[in-house]
Each structure stands twice: as C-alpha cells, then as structure tokens.
Amino acid sequence: MDEGSPTYRDQFAIPTFKSLGITHSDFADDDLSIYFCGNSLGLMPQATPKAIEEELKAWHARAVEAHFNHPNDNHWVDIDLPLLPLTAPLVGAKENEVAVMGSLTANLNALLVSFYKPKGSKTKILFEKHAFPSDYYAFLNLVKIYGYDESHLIQIAPKEGDTYLKTKDIIAAIEHHKDALALVCFPGIQYYTGQWFDIATITKAGHDAGAVVGWDLAHAVGNVPLELHAWNVDFAVWCNYKYLNSGPGAMAGIFVHENHTKENSSESFPPRLAGWWGNNASDRFKMLEKFDPIQSALSYRQSNPSVLDVVAVKTSYQLVAAAGGVTTLRQKSLALTQHLWDLLVQSPYYNATSSPWFKILTPEDPAERGAQLSVLFGPHSDDPAHDTMEQVFQYLHDHAIICDERRPNVIRLAPTPLYNTFREVEIVVQRVNEALDAIARKHS
Fold first, then answer.
1. 216: annotated binding-site residue?
2. Sites of the modification N6-(pyridoxal phosphate)lysine (predicted)?
3. Residue 104 assigned to a binding site
4. According to the annotation, is 304 in a ligand binding site?
5. Residue 233 CA to chain centroid, in angstroms?
6. Measured between alpha carbons, how far is 171 from 156 in angstroms, rounded to an integer?
7. Is residue 210 predicted with pLDDT exceeding 70?
C-alpha cells in the first residue's frame, strides 16, 4: 500500500514497549507500539502539555485576574469561544449551533430534558437494542421522571442472521410506531459493530413521523464527515477524547439546530437545564434573576468552562484543521480500513469451518462504516478458559499492539488516519494470524 499518504504521527506521543511495561525478547524498550485504540482514547498531541502549562503559568502569575487580564490575552472569561469556528466544520454546523461544554452523558441528559416533550399518545423513545449503556440509562430514567415505565422505550435490534441494523428496518420501525413516538435517538456510529448509520435518512423519517431526532456522535465525530445542519438534525452530543484526541474524560460538545435557538428571548424560550454561562453575556455579571438565553447553542452551557480542558480540546482541534479537516482525513481512513478488511478476509481463519475462526461484524460497504472493524472470534473449545478472543487479545498486547476487547468475543481494531500507517495494518493482521496459528497448534 501507498505509505505516501500524509501522516501526523510525529505530532503525537506514541507509547513504547517500555512505557507500556511490556518486555519482549524480539523488541527494544524504545520500539513504538501500534496504537489501534483511537476509537476509545486518542493519543496525546505533542503540543498539549505546553498548552496546558501556559494556563498553569497564567494561574500562577495572575490567579483570578486571568479571567479578564490574561498574560497572553487568552482571557478565561471567553476562553471557549475561539473553539466555535473549529468545532462547526467537524459536525457540519453553523457556529451558532455548537458549544464545547460538559461531558458526553451529562450533555445528553441536559438536551433530553429540553427536547423530549411527551404529549398525548406520543410519549415513546425509539433507539437501538444494543445502545451504549449510558444512553440506555439516560432514556430509561428520563421516561421515569415523567412517570412512565420502560414500556415507553422502543428498542430495535438487527434481524436474525444480521450483524448490524439495516436502514430500511429502522425506517420501518419509525413508520410502525409513528403515532407513539416523541423522540428518535441513535448513535452516529455504533460502538460495538462500527456501523455508520444513515443520519440524513433516519432524521428525515423521524421528522416525517412527528418526532424530535437526536444523535450520540461519540464514535462519529472526528471519524466521518457530518452535515448536521443540512440534515436538519435537532440535537447531537459527542465526546472529544476518541478521534479528537483531547484527553481522558475531556470536555465534550453539543449541537443544537439554530431553529431551536435563534428566536429565543427572555420572554420566550424552550425550558432547559440552565446556568449563568448560558445567559446573555452582557448581563452575566449583573447577577440578575432573569434568564435571557444566548440565541445559540451556547445557551445550553450551565457553568464556566474548565480552562485546562478547553486548551486541550483546542490543541487537538487545531491539529485536525491543519490536516485538512475530517473530509480530507476520511480519504486515508477509507484506505486504511479497506486494507485492514482485505487482509483479514484473506486469513485462513476468516469464516473457517474449523476452529479457531473469526468473522467481521462491521458492514462491508465502506460508506456504512468508520475507522473501526469489529472482529468476532468463535470458540475453539467448550472450555471457557480457552477463549479464542482472550488469547488473541493477549498475544496482540504482548507485542505492544493496543486495541480493545468487548467481551465475550469481540476485538475492535481502529486504524486512525492521523497517526496510523498501512504497514501497521499489515503487522496487526500478521499478529492476529500468528495468535490463531498458536491456538490451532495447541488444540489440534
């Protein structure tokens, strides 16, 4: 494969065998790991420590004064506002439709409180059966707050024999339940299978059914091109610590279509979980007992932002912008993931009739997936202690290949275009085959 594709790997801190605490006779301490886990936590940009250190220096030198009198004119009172022009292109939004704030599930809960409006027979929430647990917990507790029970949650799962949800089945479910639906909410990319949902088509179907449509973009933002404004999405939430490399538990983001905010005023606005940082900025420090929401997604902010978080997010966003944005990165991502797919299906263990074996859960069509392939390993023994996936995962880790497992039998592999290479893809598949060879020999 062409290794001439642009890479920014020298701008990231890549763990070594030594830093990971891995000792292997075939490798030196300073040999680099292969990091295929950006779908869980992205690598640290080399520029991030300096950006954080600058704000620590400001805190040290000026303390509270840095809110309005910052040594580098990076005044803390508005420190998140320069993020807006960097955020909007990541999700295909206008600047007045995005905000960097809070954390993923806290933001989801905050927007659900505002956008879930049960009325009459339309009280139910439609989502996928295997949604990330946080989303399920949020939906369940939301309907219970309104006095409903779990019967007001409609979950749809892949049909028997399918490994992922088909768009036509989602549309059919929306149509079937349209008289009961208040809200439709799906992930942009399914965390377990790596499926990229057809956001535009599903959003339109939800609106045609008279429902509000929201999206959890945790695995989609920074991974695939998004056009939330054009697709008329009502709201969306995401985290910034996966493909956007902003650090563990980093500050998250929201999208609220301008249709829901541009006419807001102190006299007329949709109620929400609110705080002083969402109020009219010119009146913020007057401490008035009057909520006058900013006429943008910023009105959903509740508290002043964490300065250290903001600069970490900004550093990573700037790196993505310098790389040409998500649309440019997507071209390399498509090639990387396709190379991974092609090599995996060439393995003698792919869909084999004998043990050990594996198959890929992720859609084959590149337009229906992001950077992640989810590999399901079949058992080779009736003894759970001889689990194929666990042994393959351990073998990969022993060779400093960092990916993640989803028990009982899935390994997720996510080559990330900012810092992974085609040669790394080849090595990963080689190691998978070596691990399966060892298992086959052991139990032949």
1. yes
2. 242
3. yes
4. yes
5. 17
6. 11
7. yes
pLDDT in tens, 288-335: 888 999 999 999 999 999 999 999 999 999 999 999 999 999 999 999
- Does the annotation list 87 as a binding residue? no
Annotated binding residue 226: no
* 349 labeled binding residue: no
Tell me which amino acid residue 244 is.
L
Q: What is the pLDDT of residue 347?
A: 98
Q: Is the pLDDT of residue 386 over 70?
A: no
Is 105 annotated among the ligand-binding residues? Answer: yes
248 labelled binding-site residue: no
Q: Is 133 annotated as a binding residue?
A: yes
Of 241, 268, 316, 239, whose CA–CA distance to 45 is shortest? 316
Enter the tokens of residue 381.
């023994």
pLDDT band at 1 (very low <50, low <70, confident <90, very high): low
